[in-house]
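**User:** Once you have settled down, spend some time on the protein underneath, comparing sequence with structure tokens, and judge whether sequence predicts the tokens.
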Amino acid sequence: MRRGPKKGSKFCDLHETIKFLNMFKRTPKNVYQLYHSDLRFDTKKIYRYLRYCLKAELIEIDHIEEAKFLPPKYYRLTQKGKDLIALFKDPNKPTLAPKQP
């Protein structure tokens, strides 16, 4: 028996959303970069999460390349998205804390 939403649903899982948002931590990304990342999301899922995160104001458009035929849009995290990532940060994951003498 399958757990969770049916395949092809418009449901966005919180855990998957956090993983999706983590892709934007360092630099703005476009759809091509998201597709070829280690997330292994298909294009339908990428666009579903993009729509959801844009509507929830977790990400925003950083810039659009103008010199190309189909200019890619680059997306970046908003402060709201950064706060959500920080809220659900894995407590078991080691962090690089400065050494104290």
